[in-house]
Amino acid sequence: MACASAALVVPMRASLRVTSAAPPARRALSKRTAVTTRAAAKAGQGKSDAKPRPPPAGESANGEPAKLQQTYTFHTPGSVQETDDVVVFAHQTDEEASKWENSHVSHVGDGNEFPMRVGVVIGEFHNRLMDRMLEDARVAAVSMNATLDEVVWVPGTYEAPLVVEKMLDSDLDAVVVLGYIEKGSTLHGQEMGATCSLVLKQLELEYSKPVGMGIIGPGATAEQAETRVAYAGNAMRAAIRMARFLAKPEVQ
């Protein structure tokens, strides 16, 4: 099975909607919120004069998918998602094929090009990184003959599930969540990631529609996040493949 990033380009739908979750009515700040707000404002002082950084190596540019590093400390890259090599599984070789003559072996999403419609829910908190991830997701959708119908920006990953549920309850075929839960000095990010992961999987099963997980972290450093922009494209390709599997008449 070849990598899903084949250069099949189709025009995007003119009806693509990009929105931001509307902020609620202004409320009186609690003591804790006020302290947090003042601390955030203080931390942001002086940043306006900072020189812009050059585009990272993992950035999607000129319609090309982002690249992932190919060496890891704790695991090896998955050849299907992370390389451009033609992938051949053991059951597809002449030497092994006979073992599977009486079995039906398939890979989800293969054998059809159903024009899937996908929505994206993306966190605003790390907007520069998210801009690049959104572009990588868009490139992946185009390469797989899918349409990116709606993009909704939310304050952060923790706010994503509510919008994901609304998208799943529409005529979209799949939803992809993009975000970055950074490494902090407490376990706040781990708690957030564990909660969102569980809720998003429950929604996926409830609506029987794929939810692609394009979230970096929790516990990822800024340096690690810079080399993982391509997680967005991976999540998009996985969601589209699953949606096409579920669209097959024999599965419904």
Walk me through the structure:
This protein has 8 helices and 5 strands. It has a 5-stranded parallel sheet, with helices on both faces. The protein has 252 residues and is of the alpha/beta class.
Record keyword descriptors for this entry.
252 residues, alpha/beta, 35% helix, disordered N terminus
Provide a compact summary of the structure.
The protein has 252 residues and is α/β, with parallel strands linked by helices. It is 35% helix and 15% strand.
Topology:
Blueprint: E1 17-20, H1 31-43, H2 79-82, H3 94-97, E2 117-123, H4 127-143, E3 147-154, H5 160-168, E4 174-182, H6 188-207, E5 211-220, H7 222-226, H8 231-246
Parallel strand pairs: 1-3, 2-3, 2-4, 4-5
Helix pairs in contact: 4-8, 5-6
For the biggest β-sheet, the strand order reads: 1-3-2-4-5
The number of E-state strands comes to: 5
SS-based class: alpha/beta
The percentage helix is 25-40%
**C-alpha Rg (nearest Å):** 20 Å
